[in-house]
């Protein structure tokens, strides 16, 4: 094989590998990085996870650069209550968010004193004691942890930092057809579907942030499945000699629903 043929073969191998990676990312699983603590205690800042693209089928937002090639979704199943899902922010579809599916189309959602109500009934919530949480300014604070069980049986932990959060009194609002209501598990530190257009009964988002509002079905990207690994954000990736401290033990291939 001459040099020119070898170069062509190398290029073909590279292009083939790139295409296979794009196909895998578009149709099977896509990696995501968690940049904030809005989904504590389920997901930590610095978690790296895989999202299944086929769970909800495919829309324009399933593919790189979000080409306008279809309307709605095709194939797959509808999101279920309690799913942790990645989606495109309606006000800026270049931004990915991750929250939990709380309300389905037609549901009435309300928050009373920090407790979630669905369709006029309180969601089962059990206090589990205190947990510690690091704030954005570096402070370590104690918050209350709850075990919350949605209609249908999905159970997970939520954090409640204060009894006087601005979103602790909310609604009731009814989720429109073809839309979903998303909430973060870290209830006092999540700009989610409680925030959006006040004319729809939603809260005004904090300055500089965009609320989720009622999420259209076609904005879902996929269902979060597993935490591959978790790297503490206070450590530098370049300082490889500190990796043993930086990786969070116990968060390798961790089932999000386990």
The residue ranges in which pLDDT falls below 50 over 5 or more consecutive positions are none
Text of the CATH class: Mainly Beta
* N/C terminus separation: 53 Å
Instruction: State the CATH architecture.
Output: Ribbon
Please tell me the total number of domains: 1
Radius of gyration: 20 Å
Order of helices and strands: HEEEEEEEEEEEEEEHE
User: How much helix is in the residues?
Assistant: 10-25%
Instruction: Please name the CATH topology.
Output: Umud Fragment, subunit A
How would you briefly describe this protein structure?
This protein is mostly beta strands.
Secondary structure layout plus pairing:
Layout: H1 3-27, E1 29-33, E2 47-52, E3 84-89, E4 92-103, E5 108-112, E6 115-118, E7 121-122, E8 124-134, E9 140-149, E10 155-160, E11 170-174, E12 179-183, E13 215-216, E14 220-230, H2 243-246, E15 254-255
Antiparallel strand pairs: 1-2, 2-14, 3-4, 3-14, 4-12, 5-6, 5-11, 6-7, 8-9, 9-10, 12-13, 14-15
Overview features:
globular; 8-stranded antiparallel beta sheet; single chain; mainly beta; 258 residues; Umud Fragment, subunit A
């Amino acid at each position: 094989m001459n040099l020119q043929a070898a170069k062509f073969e190398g290029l073909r191998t590279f292009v083939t590998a790139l295409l296979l990676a794009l196909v895998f990312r578009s149709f099977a699983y896509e990696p995501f990085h968690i940049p904030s603590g809005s989904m504590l205690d389920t997901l930590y800042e610095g978690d790296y996870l895989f999202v299944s693209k086929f769970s909800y089928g495919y829309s324009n937002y399933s593919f790189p650069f979000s080409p306008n090639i279809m309307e709605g979704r095709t194939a797959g199943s509808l999101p279920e209550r309690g799913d942790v899902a990645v989606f495109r922010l309606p006000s800026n579809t270049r931004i990915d968010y991750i929250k939990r599916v709380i309300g389905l189309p037609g549901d009435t959602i309300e928050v009373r004193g920090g407790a979630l109500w669905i369709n006029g009934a309180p969601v089962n919530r059990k206090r589990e004691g205190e947990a510690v949480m690091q704030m954005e300014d570096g402070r370590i604070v104690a918050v209350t942890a709850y075990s919350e069980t949605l209609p249908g049986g999905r159970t997970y932990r939520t954090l409640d930092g204060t009894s006087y959060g601005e979103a602790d009194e909310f609604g009731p609002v009814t989720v429109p057809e073809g839309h979903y209501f998303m909430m973060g598990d870290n209830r006092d530190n999540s700009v989610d579907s409680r925030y959006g257009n006040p004319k729809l009964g939603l809260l005004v988002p904090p300055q500089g942030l965009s609320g989720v509002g009622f999420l259209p079905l076609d904005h879902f990207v996929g269902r979060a499945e597993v935490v591959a690994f978790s790297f503490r954000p206070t450590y530098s990736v370049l300082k490889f000699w500190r990796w043993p401290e930086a990786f969070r033990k116990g968060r390798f291939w961790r089932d999000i629903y386990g």
